[in-house]
């Protein structure tokens, strides 16, 4: 079959990790062949780029951007403001609100400026909501109050006038309390003139939970606000070990997400959170679950891949 990236004018992406990118030729080959966008799985997170205060390590992020450049791929930046994967100096630091605000502004300015021109879109804020639609407790909310969100978008825009700026979250694919809260926030930010261009739907699915019929209408209601929408971290885990029925259910979910995105004009990107079961965050995070990707550990196409790309 043709590569996935040739089946649509939308970006077809994958999360990538610098380790296998450096050491596994077959991983590089599949990534370069099938995808025209990449997202750093961890390498642009705060703990990766500034492990000690003021000491930056750009090596992993640079390797990914360089691979993308050489392979004609677009880059999604992930992520500027998050409650997780913060460096210890920040997580355990005792900063005043004023200091913390300066630290956040400096972080956003530094990383967005560094990759200006090489990154198409940034996940500016990641996972800011609880399941009930309230704002998630974090050092940002606690110390800076809810305005940290608007500030983050403004600082990112100052550093790069043309990069697309997104809010990103999980369990927002369907219409529910969390996606309602996201919708209300985006509407409010737009009304205030805050520079937000898009909404990312992580879409970490499991065959045992499925996907509701509200998925496509949900994408559509966000698009109607005048923003782009993107599938940013799709994977579909199964209870392991898998069998033919589970892989068929997985394939159907991948296909529904693909079809839903392609049916919405403003769905600009379909990105999976890793393309091979050889390297996936799922087994480590959800014990007893796994095999969540389009390709198996030997890089053979699974039923899910063939559902998207029957050839
Ligand atoms: C995950 C990575 O895949 C893991 O390697 C890491 O240990 C933890 O983070 N939502 C996100 C991603 O926005 O950044 C997360 O990535 C998965 C859930």
UniProtKB/TrEMBL annotation:
<keyword id="KW-0119">Carbohydrate metabolism</keyword>
<protein>
    <recommendedName>
        <fullName>Beta-xylanase</fullName>
        <ecNumber>3.2.1.8</ecNumber>
    </recommendedName>
</protein>
<dbReference type="Pfam" id="PF00331">
    <property type="entry name" value="Glyco_hydro_10"/>
</dbReference>
<feature type="domain" description="GH10">
    <location>
        <begin position="1"/>
        <end position="311"/>
    </location>
</feature>
<keyword id="KW-0732">Signal</keyword>
<dbReference type="InterPro" id="IPR001000">
    <property type="entry name" value="GH10_dom"/>
</dbReference>
<dbReference type="InterPro" id="IPR017853">
    <property type="entry name" value="GH"/>
</dbReference>
<dbReference type="GO" id="GO:0031176">
    <property type="term" value="F:endo-1,4-beta-xylanase activity"/>
</dbReference>
<keyword id="KW-0378">Hydrolase</keyword>
<keyword id="KW-0858">Xylan degradation</keyword>
<dbReference type="InterPro" id="IPR044846">
    <property type="entry name" value="GH10"/>
</dbReference>
<dbReference type="InterPro" id="IPR031158">
    <property type="entry name" value="GH10_AS"/>
</dbReference>
<feature type="active site" description="Nucleophile">
    <location>
        <position position="233"/>
    </location>
</feature>
<keyword id="KW-0624">Polysaccharide degradation</keyword>
<dbReference type="GO" id="GO:0045493">
    <property type="term" value="P:xylan catabolic process"/>
</dbReference>
<keyword id="KW-0326">Glycosidase</keyword>
<comment type="similarity">
    <text>Belongs to the glycosyl hydrolase 10 (cellulase F) family.</text>
</comment>
């Amino acid at each position: 079959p043709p590569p996935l990236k040739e089946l649509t004018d939308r970006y077809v992406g994958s999360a990538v990790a610098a380790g296998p990118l450096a050491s596994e030729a077959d991983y590089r080959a599949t990534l370069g062949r099938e995808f025209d966008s990449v997202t750093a799985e961890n390498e642009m997170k705060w703990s990766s780029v500034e492990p000690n205060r003021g000491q930056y390590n750009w090596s992993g992020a640079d390797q990914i951007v360089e691979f993308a450049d050489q392979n004609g791929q677009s880059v999604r930046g992930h992520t500027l403001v998050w409650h997780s994967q913060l460096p210890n100096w920040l997580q355990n630091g005792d900063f005043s609100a004023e200091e913390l605000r300066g630290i956040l502004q400096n972080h956003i300015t530094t990383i967005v400026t560094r990759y200006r021109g090489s990154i198409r879109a940034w996940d500016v804020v990641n996972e800011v909501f609880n399941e009930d639609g309230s704002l998630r407790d974090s050092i940002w909310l606690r110390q800076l109050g809810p305005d940290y969100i608007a500030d983050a978008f403004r600082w990112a825009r100052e550093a790069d006038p043309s990069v697309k700026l997104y809010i990103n979250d999980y369990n927002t694919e369907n219409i529910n309390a969390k996606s309602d809260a996201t919708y209300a926030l985006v509407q409010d930010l737009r009304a205030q003139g805050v520079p937000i261009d898009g909404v990312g739907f992580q879409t970490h699915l499991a065959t045992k939970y499925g996907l509701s019929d509200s998925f496509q209408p949900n994408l559509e209601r966000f698009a109607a606000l005048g923003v782009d929408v993107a599938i940013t971290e799709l994977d579909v885990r199964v209870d392991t070990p898998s069998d033919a029925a589970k892989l068929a259910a997985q394939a159907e979910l991948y296909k529904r997400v693909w079809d839903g995105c392609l049916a919405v004009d403003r769905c600009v990107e379909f990105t999976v959170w890793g393309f091979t079961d050889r390297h996936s965050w799922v087994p480590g995070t959800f014990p007893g679950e796994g095999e969540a990707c389009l390709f198996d550990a030997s890089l053979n196409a699974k039923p899910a891949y063939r559902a998207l790309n029957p050839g």
